[in-house]
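Holo model, zinc ion. Inputs:
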Amino acid sequence: MNQKTSILCLIASFFMAVAVPGADLATGTSVFGSRQFIEYIPGSLPIVIASPHGGSERPEDIPDRIHGVTDMDANTQELAKTLGKVILAETGQHAHLILCRLHRIKVDANRRLLDAVEGNADAEKAWHEHHGFIEQACQQSVAKHGFAFLIDLHGHGHPDPRVELGYLHDAIDLADCAEAHDESTYVQRSSLRWVVEQRGIRHSDLLYGSRSLGALLELAGFPCTPSQMKPVPSHPFFRGGYTLTRHCRAEENITGLQIEANRPRLRDTAENRLKFAIALTKSLRTYFKINLGFELAETQGSPAILPTFHISE
Ligand SMILES: [Zn+2]
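Output:
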């Protein structure tokens, strides 16, 4: 191969790796946005997992953000990947995964554009691609299954070491009574609105009843809020952010939540990330069955596959 041919091959391989949101993609095979800042692994399940704050890349040509929060959510990208692998091992199918590989000091993919980037075109492009891939994943899930379930995955460092489940209600909202939570004014603002309206399940039951994700995760050994054990979160509490507000739209058959994982026992080591991912997958299987009427099928012999995740994520 002469030098000209090898340069052409290099250019071709670069462009093959870059995908634009909206393109037809192969399940389980990573594609990347411009400069590989956003990675999208397309799935076939109606589960869309986004990791906006776990990226570590800090290219020098993109200036650091000065305003707002710039700390990354450590190990949440690794946790998202482990969750994707456990779901694959347990069900035989991929969830959709969207990973922002840029550090939060360069772009905050869980903020509106005005606050997310500070005047850099490449960071702005990455922000658009992140949300474009989420949109594409949700649309494909809706086309295939009739709905999409979005999990925006984060990590918090709050004093109360519980998993915080954000449905777009803050702690003051959640301190209200169950009757209020079941009123349409609350439901309209909830990321679970589609489940309430399409599945006929009481909103309060989905927030902190026995069928809530919080209750199911607690049964699997991970304290949560809101949940049966702690229906009203302590301050501070993350209610869910821009991504949830933008994408969880009942009229488009999209529902979901923001999951904020505390660090100890959940995301501090590869072994703990695996344990949490297994518990979350088990909880999601029950949640999907009883609340969404959807069976996340079990793969025969899956426990034998799981220990291999200790090696790499
Ligand atoms: Zn975060």
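The first strand starts at residue 31 and ends at 32. The mean pLDDT is 91.
Archived with the compound record.
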